[in-house]
Every structure is written in C-alpha cells, then in structure tokens.
Amino acid sequence: MIQEIDFLPKYKIDYLIEHITNIKHRCLVLLQCDCGLRVFEAITLKMQDFNFKERLISVKSLKKRKEARFKSRAVPITNRLYSAISNYLPLLKETDSEAMLFPSSSKDGHISRIQVNKLLDRFKRKHPGFENLHPHALRHSFATQLYANGTDLYVIQTLLGHERLEMTQIYTHIPSERLKQATSEALEGKKTAVQRIKEKLIGKQPDQIINIQPLQNELMLGRDELTYEINDKISRKINMILLGPTGVGKSTILKNINTGERKILQIDDCSEMKATLLNILLYLHGEKEKVFELMFGAYDKTAFKSKLSRQTMKHLAQCICDVVQPHEYVLVIDSVDRIPPRAVDVLEMFKDHFTIITSAREVALNKTSFLWNFETHKIEALTRPMSLELINKLSYDMEIEDYEQYKNYIWNKSDGNPRVIFEMCDRFRKEVIVSKDTVRSIDHYGSLKEIDMSIFILIALGCMAIFRYVGKETGNTSLTFIGGCAMIILILSRYFFGFTKQKVLK
C-alpha cells in the first residue's frame, strides 16, 4: 500500500537552506535533505564517520544485526554540504576521530531530536508555506528528488539504508500503473506473443466498468510556486490582487493562503459593505454591548439599532482601524469585480492598516484608486501537461474505453481552465460506461471562446457612413444626417468594442 507522505519540492528546499543563517543548523538540515539521513543518524555522527578525501559519510544503521556490530552504508557528500561543514568545523572545540559533529553536555554527548524539531518549528513560524516541514519530510524530499530524476530504486534503497525495497517504494511514490503491471505479471504471468497479436488484430475485450464517486479535494495543481510566493508577500505585509478569468482558481488560492500567526478577516460581499463592517466590529469585540460602549458610551439596548444605522461607512471603518493594530489582521476579500464607489473609499482607508489580498476578473479604472499600492498577480489557465495531470488525478480510478481520447477531449473543451476540468470529470463519472461515443456526446459551455462581433459592426458603420456623401450628392438631408451619425460612432467605436463580445452556444 502506498502511503501519503510529506515532502518539499526542490525550490522550497533551496529556500530553506538559503534562509537558515546558523551554520550548525544548516549542516543538520543538509545532512537530512542532501544525504537522506534520519534525524538520529545525523545527530549521532562522529568525525571518524567522514571521509572528506572521497567525500563520503559512513552512516551506521539504527538496527543491530545478528552479528555484534552495526551495518553501515556510504552516502556521498554534496558540494553545499561540504562547504557548510568546512565553515562549521572551525567553531568546534574538539575535532578528533571520536568527537561528535554536534556535541552537547547531555549524557549522550550529542544534541537531541527535540532540538532539531524546535529549530524547524521556529522556521515554520517565521516562514509561511512550510506547514509540512519536519525532520523526516527532509528525508522524504531527498528520496523523492532522486526518483524524479530517474535514479534506480535499488540505488535509492541503498542510500536510504532500507532492508526491503517495499520501504523505498513508499518513500518514492511509485506510480500505481507500474505497481499494477508488476503485480499482474507476477500473478497472471506475461502475455504470450499469440495473445498480444490477437489483441492488436481484434482489439482487447473490455472489462466490466465500475466507477465510484470519490471524495473531491480542491487540488492546487500547478499553483505551488504561486501560492508560496503569495504567502511570502503576505509575511512581508504586501497587498495583492489576483487577476484572472472565471474558473482559474482564484478563490481556491485565497482559501489556501497561509498568514502565519496573524488572523484573517474575511469579506465575501463588497456590495453590502456597511453590514460587513458592522459584523467585523461585532466579531472583534465579541459582544454588542462592547461595540456600543466603544462607539456611543453607556449601552442602551433600545437605541442600539437606530444609532448604528446612522453611522457612515467611513466612521465604522475608522472604528475598526482604532480597534486593531496596523497589519494585525490579513483582510481577505473574495472579489472586487463589482465593488461600489463607497466600498472603494473604505478600502482606501484599510489598505495601509491591513494586509489585503483580493481577486477580480477585471476592475474598472474609476475604481482602482485603492489598488495603487497593490501587487498584481495574473492567474493563467493550466498548461497542457498540468491539465492532463489534473485530469489523471480526478479520473485515476475510472475505467474509460479510450483514455487518450478522454483526456484530449477534456483538454480541448476546457482550454486549461481548472473549474471546467473539475466539472467535466465529475460529469463523466456519472456515466455507467465511458465509451468513445459517450465522450463525444458530453459538452461544456463554461469556457467557450468569446466571439468578436466588432468587425461586423465596423463594416455596417462604414457602409452607413457612405450615406453622408450620397446625401450630399442627392441633396437628401436625412441620408447626410444618418451618415454623419454613423461616422461619429465609427470614430468612437473602439470605446464600445468591449460590449460587442459575447459567448454563444453553437
């Protein structure tokens, strides 16, 4: 059974190493993520375990064998680990063969696992986006990167010090297709040449199809680096707006942001901003009495509702700013597509007091004043490889007659839009049999291309503009007037072309 494990992608490992300034801690982390050592193997290393000439570490296994000795394995020292150790050794008092690499005054003579966990926990608190960081995740990352680069499983098994290959398969996420193939060949035997020729000539007899409804998780496929970058900007108190068409995952990204130790205030509807501001005040103080006393003095229950309704949105916004410290909260606004002018004024007050992150398909120019100190991130549709990977993740347990046709059909219909991919895969799952004809019969209209009607309008206006000259020649003032109006509209037409595009069902 393949287990779910934590690991960090290469860019996060590089970020981790770059931002650990303590040279001792850097050596500890590098031993785990560059050499795949278990945390206990790393903290118990002695000087005699290093062969700096050959750049190898002799790592003793954690388990005793039948012989009265420990089995060891040789692990290469990477260039950045070699450089870190060379800077670290001058800081040690003892460097003889029996000296510990990470000495301590404890009875064991070396630092403990708890100290390693604490240094990683401190890093997680300071750097959002590393929730899954722990000592064994670094070892998982080492094995995962080796496997991703095509390293043989038996080599990885040796480097990790596993007794059984099954353990290595767990760490390196062996794809289910390879496991199924190996199991099938072992239990059913390899297909004969006659069987393979028969399948090519008459086709393979389809098995009975069973499709079940799995739990649908919101996948962040292809958004890891962007999410990490956004979390980094939030930690540095930078306001951001995510721009992109419907369905590319803006809301999903907002749901998965990491604010570290700071709390979140959520605004779901900018059109009812006054009610939202009142709810924020109630949330911040917990009780209506406290809000009322803050704003009006002695609490009077009968006058509470009427007095609140008289307050302007700016006054309510200012009360919120008075209650919280600058950048104490992260303000998450789901969308500012149709933000009214009064809400723009409120956000102009909030933009320097909160760290704000929001999203939109587009924002009108006359409503962009609050965005002047915002950083823009454009969310694009998924690339073809990422789209196909998402389709695989959503359909891995489905039996489909022609899987290549199925994937390509969804890709062509979705054009990389994650929401469309989700909805189409979910629609196909409702079919008892996903045959070739079934695939072709199901459509989706959410990602239709915009039909540009401007060329037809230009031709029509051009033809009408000719009436101006025809009217002058014939003396017909009506034609002259119509042609003049058409020419004026033609000159100003570029300002109206945005309204001539629409989606149509074919």
How much strand content do the residues show? 5-15%
CATH class category of the largest domain: Mainly Alpha
The helix tally amounts to 23
Residue-averaged pLDDT, rounded? 77
Shape verdict:
extended
CATH topology name of the largest domain, in short, is hpI Integrase, Chain A
Overall strand count: 10
How would you name the CATH homologous superfamily of the largest domain?
Answer: Intergrase catalytic core
Distance between the termini: 47 Å
Oligomer: single chain
SS class: alpha/beta
CATH-level-2 architecture of the largest domain: Orthogonal Bundle
The helical percent reads 40-55%
Unreliable runs: 64-70, 172-189, 206-218, 498-506
Integer-rounded radius of gyration? 32 Å
- Strands of the widest sheet, in order across it, are 5-6-7-4-8
Largest sheet: 5 strands, parallel
Count of spatially separate domains: 4
Could you characterize the architecture of this molecule?
This protein is of the alpha/beta class and 506 residues long. The chain has 4 domains: 10-170, Orthogonal Bundle (hpI Integrase, Chain A); 237-378, 3-Layer(aba) Sandwich (Rossmann fold); 384-441; 451-502. The protein has helices at residues 10-19, 23-33, 39-43, 79-88, 113-126, 135-148, 153-160, 165-171, 176-188, 193-202, 224-235, 250-255, 273-285, 288-296, 301-309, 313-323, 341-350, 384-395, 403-414, 418-429, 436-441, 454-474, 477-492, and strands at 50-51, 56-64, 70-76, 239-243, 263-267, 329-333, 355-360, 374-378, 451-452, 501-502. The strands form 3 sheets. It has a 5-stranded parallel sheet with strand order 5-6-7-4-8. A hairpin with a 4-residue loop joins strand 1 and strand 2. The longest helix has 21 residues, at 454-474. It is extended and about 110 Å long.
